[in-house]
Design goal:
Layout (H helix, E strand, L loop, with lengths): L46 H9 L7 E2 L4 E2 L1 H10 L1 E2 L4 E4 L2 E2 L4 E2 L3 E2 L4 E2 L3 E2 L4 E2 L3 E2 L4 E2 L2 E3 L4 E2 L3 E2 L4 E2 L2 E3 L4 E2 L3 E2 L4 E2 L2 E3 L4 E2 L3 E2 L4 E2 L3 E2 L4 E2 L3 E13 L4 E2 L3 E11 L4 E2 L3 E6 L2 E3 L4 E2 L3 E5 L26 E4 L8 E4 L18 E3 L5 E2 L4 E4 L2 E4 L4 E2 L1 H8 L20 H17 L3 H17 L6 H14 L5 H23 L7 E6 L8 E6 L12 H15 L10 H29 L2
Parallel strand pairs: 1-5, 2-6, 4-8, 5-9, 6-10, 7-11, 8-12, 9-13, 10-14, 11-15, 12-16, 13-17, 14-18, 15-19, 16-20, 17-21, 18-22, 19-23, 20-24, 21-25, 22-26, 23-27, 24-27, 25-27, 26-28, 27-29, 28-30, 29-31, 29-32, 30-33, 31-34, 32-35, 34-36, 36-37
Antiparallel strand pairs: 3-4, 38-41, 39-40, 42-43
Helix pairs in contact: 4-5, 5-6, 7-8, 7-9, 8-9
């Protein structure tokens, strides 16, 4: 029976090894561990000794064949010796295949590993089939090389699965696999396609710094813990369909188009890099498999809802980013590049100001509802005079203040304007102006005073009720002043005077009008109110009423003709900003 040779190495293994075939160029020779009672490995035993060893194995026995080179025939013989008559599949106790070499196909279909299974640094040169295998202990596949297909469909990992620094040169199949404990694929390389359709991760799944070199279809899958793709690299198109509690994509690089369709997930996308369009969308209904069956989501049964929440976009170039139906109420935006080019589709929600009426030093404070950023909540909550309701528990917000938030609001305003959502853009314009009003390092005192007046009079031209309130107050003041000082006691009458020449002839008359007299007696009568209201209403639309006024009344009318049309214009502007499309 021919057997493949192991990789030559000048460093001997840590276990007593076979040494078969050593020479000056390969002083180590075969690295296979000694079979108990022999000085050679399983591959280099005589046929009689090998048969005697295999006949002595029983289902559930511990085996140790580290460094051993396996052919298909030898591996099939070993697994046949461990066949459980009750299930007709192999059953192994503790399995040690560290640094073993599997030439040809390695068929572990349906095998049950009752103890820990060690395949660290093993090499599968053909098909590696672990379909429906059950790993009841830890499964170690660290630094394994899969040169052909790696098939783990319907496999079960009950404790932990470790594929750290593994290399998948062919397609990696983990469809319907179940990971009941921690699963780690960190620093692994997927040179072929990677498929995890219907896989279930009941703990955390780590793909940190993994490299996906071709088409990737991760999912639809369910992860009850964290799914970590931080610093991973996607060289080909990627489609990720997750129902997971959290997805970490810190500094992940996407070199082709990507689509992330999620449920239940809180996404951290800080400092991710992508050069092509990338879409992150929330799925309202459970994912559906090709056979029409929905993906089971029992692992997330205790989740409050299926909402997808964005935790951070800091450091991201958002020029190619599309967000659809994402909750952005806790998202950190400060430091995002080209945020004005982000596309927000569907219903993307933001946080709002504290509802209801609040009290500060016995004065009522009420905030008009608008979209706000999580960083503004954190900044306002940190102020000494902050009212209750601002959220101070914004993780990772840091020391972001008005100077950093003003350009963020400005960029989001432009993004909403470009999507023809003027009412939505108005909220971010309000936030931008609020940050400018509170920013003291680059804004002059005069500018802040002007902004404060603009805010008080009309909410930056966005609060029609405020402008109308000031207009009503100004009109009342004008009416009161006109009734008290502006309207004369009586309307002056015209008088004509002239002289008749002694001999007759042409008579010349001079028509004059007496100066209005300041009012005396009862100034607040119905008649005077009607006249004052007429003057005020004409002032609102910048017209003169033609009413005779005292000197004080003339100045009162001039002031009202300046202020009241401005307030009316601000109210009209606010209404337009809210209804414009």
């Amino acid at each position: 029976m021919p057997y493949p040779s192991t990789e030559s190495s000048l460093a001997p293994p840590d276990w007593p090894h076979c040494g078969h075939g050593n020479d000056p160029e390969d002083p180590v020779g075969c690295r296979g561990i000694h079979v108990p009672g022999h000085a050679v490995c399983l591959a280099h035993l005589t046929d009689a000794d090998r048969n005697r060893y295999l006949n002595g194995l029983t289902p559930g026995a511990d085996i140790d064949h580290r460094g051993t080179p396996f052919t298909e025939r030898l591996l099939d013989a070993l697994l046949a010796a461990l066949l459980d008559p009750a299930t007709e599949y192999p059953r192994v106790g503790e399995a040690r295949f560290d640094s073993a070499t599997f030439q040809g196909d390695a068929r572990f279909v349906g095998t049950t590993f009752q103890g820990n299974a060690w395949f660290d640094s093993a090499s599968f040169q053909g098909l590696a089939r672990f379909t429906s295998a059950s790993f009841q202990g830890y499964a170690h596949f660290d630094a394994v090389s899969f040169r052909g297909y790696a098939v783990f469909d319907s496999a079960t990992f009950q404790v932990g699965a470790f594929f750290v620094r593994a290399t998948f040169q062919g397609t990696a199949h983990f469809s319907a696999a179940t990971f009941e404990g921690h699963a780690s694929f960190g620093w692994s390389t997927f040179q072929g396609a990677a498929g995890f359709r219907s896989a279930v991760f009941e703990g955390d799944a780590w793909f940190e710094e993994a490299a996906f070199e071709r088409l990737v279809t991760l999912g639809p899958l369910v992860c009850a813990g964290r799914f970590v793709l931080s610093e991973a690299t996607f060289s080909g198109p990627a489609k990720l369909s997750f129902a997971a509690r959290r997805l970490d994509c810190l500094r992940t690089r996407w070199s082709s188009t990507a689509e992330l369709r999620l449920r239940y997930t809180t996404v951290n996308f800080a400092h991710a890099v992508f050069e092509y369009p990338l879409t992150i969308a929330a799925e309202a209904d459970p994912f559906v498999l090709p056979d029409g069956q929905p993906v089971e989501e029992e692992a997330l049964a205790d989740a409050p809802d299926a909402t997808v929440r964005m935790a951070s976009l800091r450091g991201v170039d958002a020029a190619h980013l599309v967000l659809a139906d994402i909750d952005l109420s806790r998202c950190l935006f400060a430091g995002t590049v080209h945020l004005d080019q982000v596309r927000l589709e569907g219903t993307c929600t933001f946080d709002t100001v504290p509802p209801g009426t609040h009290w500060r030093h016995w004065l009522p404070i009420r905030f008009t509802q608008r979209r706000t950023l999580a960083e503004e909540h954190r900044w306002r909550a940190s102020q000494a005079r902050a009212v209750r309701g601002w959220n101070v528990a914004v993780l990772g917000a840091g020391n972001v203040g008005p100077a950093q938030l003003a350009p963020v609001y400005r960029a989001l305003r432009k993004a909403f304007e470009d999507s023809k959502n003027e009412p939505g853009a108005a909220d971010f314009y309000y936030g931008e102006m609020e940050m400018r009003r509170h920013e003291s390092t680059s804004t002059t005192r005069a500018e802040r005073g002007l902004l404060h007046s603009y805010w008080m009079l009309s909410g930056y031209g966005l609060r029609a009720s405020r402008a109308l309130g000031w207009l009503a107050a100004a009109m009342i003041v004008t009416i009161v002043l006109l009734m008290g000082f502006g309207l004369p006691k009586d309307n002056p009458k015209q008088e004509a005077t002239g002289t008749v020449p002694p001999g007759g002839g042409k008579v010349t008359f001079e028509i004059d009008k007496a100066d209005p007299q300041n009012p005396t007696g009862n100034k607040f009568t119905g008649e005077r109110f009607e006249k004052a209201l007429n003057v005020t209403l004409n002032s609102v639309v910048f017209r003169s009423s033609g009413q005779d006024l005292t000197t004080a009344g003339t100045y009162i009318e001039m002031a009202s003709r300046v202020t009241e049309p401005v307030l009316l214009g601000l109210a009209v502007l606010a209404v337009r900003n809210r209804v414009k499309r």
